[in-house]
Amino acid sequence: MQRSRTHLRHLLLGLLFAQTYAELPMCKESDYHFEYTECDVLGSRWRVAVPNKADTCTGLPDPVKGTQCTFSCSEGEFLDMQSQQCQKCAAGTYSLGTGVAFDEWDSLPSGFVTHGVTANGGDSHTDCSNSTWTPKGDYIASNTDECTATLSYAVSLKKPGTVSFEYFYPDDSIYFEFFVQNDQCQSTDTESRWMKISESFFSKYAVELKSGNNVLYWRTTVYTPEGSAIKPVLLRNIAISGVAYTSECFHCKPGTHSAKAGSARCSPCPADTFSNKGATVCHQCETDKYAEAGSGSCKQRPACTNSDYFYTHTPCDSEGKTQLMYKWIEPKICSESVQGAVKLPASGEKQTCPPCNPGFFVTNSSTCEPCKEGSYSNGTVCTKCPVGMEPVVGLEYKWWNTMPSNMKSSIFRREFSDSEHSTAWEVAGEYVYTAPGDQDTDYLMLTLNVPGYRLPQSVATDSERTELSRITFVFKTTCTADCKFFFLAGYNQWNNDVVEHWTGSNSKQSYSYLIQSNSTTSFTWTFRRTEEVNVERKYGADSAKIFSIHITNVIGGVASECRRCALGSATADSACVPCPPGHYMVNGTGVCVSCPTNTFIKPEQPIGEAACVQCGPNTKRNKAYTACLSDCALDVQTSGGALLHYDFSPLVNVTGFHSSPRFTNKGLRYFHRFNLGLCGKEGRVQAKCVDNVTESGKAVKGYVCQSTVVPSEIRSQSVVSAQPFIIGDSLIGVTTDTKLSSISSPDWLFPASSGLPDVIFYYKSSETTQACKQGRSATVRLRCNPTVTAKDHITLPSNCSEGTCDGCTFHFLWQSQHACPLCTKDHYREIVSACVQGIQRTTYVWQQPLQCYGGESLPAQIVSACVTLDFWLNFGVSLGTIAAVLLISISCYFWKKTRKLQYKYSKLMMSSGGNDCELPTADSCAIMEGEDAEDELMDLTKKSFFTKIKSYSRERTSDGFDSVPLKSSSSRHQIEEEDSDDA
Question: How far apart are CA 109 and CA 103, in angstroms?
Answer without folding.
Answer: 10
